[in-house]
Amino acid sequence: MANKSANWFKQTATTANPLRRQRLRVGVTGLSGAGKTTFITSLINQLENHQKGLLAQRSPFDRLDSVRWRRDDIKRPFPYLESLAALSADPAAWPESTADLSRVLLDLRFKPRGLLGKLQGAKEVSIEILDYPGEWLLDLPLLNMSYGQWCEQMAQWLGQPPRAELASTLHERLQAIDPTADADTQELATLADHWAKFLQRCRSEAGLSRNQPARFLQPGSDVAAEMLHFVPLLQANQHTTAPTGSWWAVCEARFNYYRDFIVRGFYDEHFRHLDQQVLLVDMLSPMDAGQAALADLKDAMEAVLESFHYGQNGFLARLLRFRPRIRRLALCATKVDKVGPRQQRAVQQCLEDLMVDRLADVRHGGVEIKGLPLSAIRATRQEGEALVAGLQGKTGWVRYQPGDIPEHLPQSLEVNSPELLPLRPPPGLHRNEPFPHYRMDDLVAWMLKGQRL
Length: 453
Ligand SMILES: Nc1nc2c(ncn2[C@@H]2O[C@H](COP(=O)(O)OP(=O)(O)OP(=O)(O)O)[C@@H](O)[C@H]2O)c(=O)[nH]1
Ligand SMILES: [Mg+2]
What we know:
It contains 15 helices and ten strands. It has two domains: 20-136 and 273-448, no CATH class; 140-267, no CATH class. By secondary structure, the protein is α/β, with parallel strands linked by helices. This is YcjX family protein. InterPro entries: P-loop_NTPase, YcjX-like. It comes from marine sediment metagenome.
């Protein structure tokens, strides 16, 4: 059956007029837990139900004729049905955190506009998106680093709170290793395991974002376990040299493999030819976790954004097919249904305050930036000043008053956090009805802006 429909697709794809079909590659970028998978699930759902929701009332979706989510002819399709199964369970649950790469391909067919349009026929846009574990983004800065530089950076991070306390005895063990001595592979495997546990603690206990190497937390399907047996040697630096078989030589070789094949492979797959980027940031959790988590989020996002190419390509660059640059960026504070509607803009403002320097650079490069406080799936309903929602894994409802969000993020990054509860998705979600949301329609409209439809 799958083969049959794949063949059918190939036939229709080759007979369609390629001039009438445009391709849109959207980079959905966000750290782990930012809300990428939930966002992509809601995006497919909103488009599949474009005739019923808010989209139906706005241009160009009033001319949207049909939407097809393609899955038969692509490698590793996005697990839309699995996400739907969790969301529509009783009690409803969120989609699982992502463990591997997957791809979304959506074909949108628009009815032609005007007499000339009718003569030309229907227009198609194919939207292409990748989903991946958010941790993997944190590896991108490694592309520009040697192993020695990474060791130096780790030594610096481990010297400061909260990582210093979280690393406890591991710090001393790594500090004690002479990089030029013969490597003990058994001990190295144990240390790598301890490093992975340390990264887990950084994430879960301190809410830190920059946890490297990311595949220690989320390996994915294409990495052999022993290739992850390396650790930072805290006595080493970028000038270190040591003989074959030494701790340095073994760790450096594995680091280089990790950087040149695993990180580079992900980079090439995710970042080739992005037309636009949707940057999703969960601002509320680090506001809740405190100053260190906010500072770490800022550094992490700045480091990640360094890896993207923004701005206009000149005529010559376009002619020579240089790497295309991202010309449009939507910056979205996610999960804003957790606060009252009047505070949603404040959450977005705090995010823009946090990223102010990097955003100024990107904007200066000629990139159009759109700020949108977003909720892909709205879990709360408003009752006066209070919010009503269900808690994860439980039945029944709670009524609560979320705390205030400051209008601006203070320079010190010290904020009184709003009350954050582990909410479950709303009941009654079904594939064939548009999910409740905040501003998904604005975002989908933004994505298609500038397309000749
Ligand atoms: N209330 C609310 N919670 C949300 C929303 N979107 C995501 N969440 C919560 O945030 C969690 C993480 O969302 P995901 O979509 O899994 O995040 P992700 O970016 O795909 O994370 P990784 O797969 O780990 O990279 C979910 O399990 C929900 O608890 C939303 O619109 N509203
Ligand atoms: Mg995910």
